[in-house]
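User: Fold this one for me? It's Transposase.
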Amino acid sequence: MNEVTLIGVDLAKSVFQAHGAAADGSTIFRKKLTRIQFAKFMAEQPPCVVAMEACGSAHYWAREMTKLGHTARLIAPIYVKPFVKRQKNDVADAEAIAEAASRPNMRFVPVKSEEQQARSALFRTRELLVRQRTQAANALRSHLAEFGIIVPKCMCNVKRLVTYVDDPQRLLPKSLRDLGLMYLLQIADLKHQIDQLEKSIKSEAQDSQISRRLQTMPGVGPIVAMAIEAFAPDMSNFKCGRNFSAWLGLVPRQHSTGGKQILGRTSKVGQKDIRRLLIIGAMSVIKATTIRGTVKGSWLERMLAKKPRMLVAIALANKMARSIWAMLTRGENYRNPMMAAA
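Assistant: Here's what I get for Transposase.
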């Protein structure tokens, strides 16, 4: 009888579907299991490869499978979809996951540690609160606009909102004034919570040797450094800095054919949080160097002379990503503190 060597698992909140396959690809079993049954069932299986889609709770189950002696493999859903036959259901999905995992050139998602996921949750919570604060400010701006009070965008104009709501000379309805005070209290509370989260992020960045090393690069502060630690896999997964930059989506999208190379806009695939923060960091570097002045004949000076600032920022973020790969793989600090001479 063939022994199971690969199990494809379609994860869910309550009911899991498992597809066991032998080394030759033949089906050994198809099982529908509850959450409790799944953990017990996998503990009874011989050590094998357990493949799952990189979805909600996948990293947790990958760590649990590793504890049981299995080899956990996570696959991006986009790579599983081509293997689904005809109709989509749990049975077909589990089989497709097993089929995708058996491909020799399949790309797998690195399993995150508990510490990485905790830091990810910290960043996600901060982003949520920032969005909520922006939504509250925009809602108040729109309500005041209906009464002829126009306040420009940007959170720096919140003080003007306070002035308009509290101004007794403006004949605003009492209900609107009370509503405005409610929004302002919510914005102030959200700002306090965001400040507390940023303190936690900066504290963790100070305690981490990797984050301290990353912060030796211009444009990389504690938030960017901690984002790289939280969201980026081990740099040994990338052969070179260019691969890491491509993983972040900071390279042109390729659509080449017939030996002709055709490059388009940036691909914007991969980890968007790090990509966004690196571009913001690059913009801050450009702003600082334009004030101080760039090194004559440097790459940055030549780029700014002939290209739009945003395009230069993306190109600089690409260079920063490559430098980050080199710093982390070699265990070195940033060598040249003058990014303008990059």
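One thing worth pointing out: The beta strands are 6-10, 15-21, 27-34, 49-53, 71-75, 252-254, 263-266.
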